[in-house]
Please model this.
Amino acid sequence: METMTSTRRDFLGKLSLLPAIPAASLLRTAQRSDGAMAIERVPHFTPKCKRVIYLFQSGAPSQLDLFDPKPGLRALHGKELPAHVRGEQRLTGMSAQQASLRIAASPFEFRQHGESGAFLSELLPETARIADRLCIVRSMFTEAINHDPAITFVQTGSELAGRPSFGAWVSYALGSLNPDLPPFLVLVSAGQGGQPLYARLWGSGFLDARYQGVQLRAGAAPVLYLGNPQGVSRKARRAVLDALARIERQQQEREGDARIASRMAQYELAYRMQASLPALTDTSTEPASTFELYGEDAKKPGSFAANCLLARRFAEAGVRFIQLYHQGWDQHDNLPQAIRGQAQETDRASAALVLDLERRGLLDDTLVVWGGEFGRTVYSQGKIDGANFGRDHHPRCFSIWLAGGGVRAGTTYGHTDEFGYNIVDADGTPLKPSKHRPTRGAVHVHDLQATMLQLLGIDHERLTAAFQGRDFRLTDVHGRVQRELLA
Model:
């Protein structure tokens, strides 16, 4: 009976693995140099970029105070938002019970910059220097109205946790440019409060674990337990791995479990990282001119500036997808003071990264993305107290910027109404966009994901993986490539 039970358990265990095998592995596959199985004929067409650096601003930066000027609101400051502007839009629980929704005009000045004439807030003087390299999108929108589902949606294409992250999809499709480093690295600014970030945001979901992001810590040990224990030499480590590989191969031949090969691939990558990563994360070799560009904060491990510098080094070394997270943009109150501080922490380093990539010849084939999960409301959450106010969550429109990697530089795309509340056409006609109905002039989160994949040479409709009886993709059943954003 014990033998029968064990056999049944083994059989069912093996069956449970089948849905997790990528669709490419069930159909036609090709062996990559790193030993992984990849979709054949990917990229699907000639890519415009090789890698992505995503500067994710967690908490939702206010587009009205950074990228989308509405000078006419100053005459309406403190007055009630007209009911027809809001329409039937749902509000969060934080402002739904307010007796009034009073307009809060931005206290910051906007000016035009560069030959493109892009409008940028006084809070972003360094970003203003690279205005002609930017593609600013003012007409982003999403359905998610609260932070966790909204961040999860931007990062994985679904508001529900458990799907593969953007970087994992790219790693699955394209693999690594450097076999000695993971294709997907993650850096989180140290010491920042704000909405929590979870490892699932850079996880591999139902894809193989080798595609998940590797988070690096600030300081001398960027990856825990990567180094050998005291008394264990690199030669001894190699001998242990070789012996283990022989045992693992026998087990895989016996059990047919794809996770065994994945585990061995991770062991081997960790071994190679022991030699490659320490030098790569040591920025002390950078010349003084680098820190003049990024600022003194770049010398502080874990700061946003230090992470931007590391992102350039990783891009140069061949990391495919580099994800930075910077928390603290969730300004429901005290916005004028708080957003100034956030801008000071991120403005110089963001611009420096673009300039640094450009001077090293990397910007043309590196896509840089800067933005959060949704926007902020034109009305104040709570009362306006003199110069102090806050803004609530606003999914109907928000702003991001892109640079390099095949995007149309010196462009500001999309329009919002005079209140910065709804997306409109160039002539002011309301668009009422929906993810189910692609709308020219409006950019849904799935549209952004489809466009980023397009720049990497990937057809977002063909990048799929089989799981639980059906094919999944990053953009679900939606997404329109925004060709207006492409060079």
Q: What stands out?
A: The first strand starts at residue 29 and ends at 31. The CA atoms of residues 16 and 316 lie 40 Å apart.
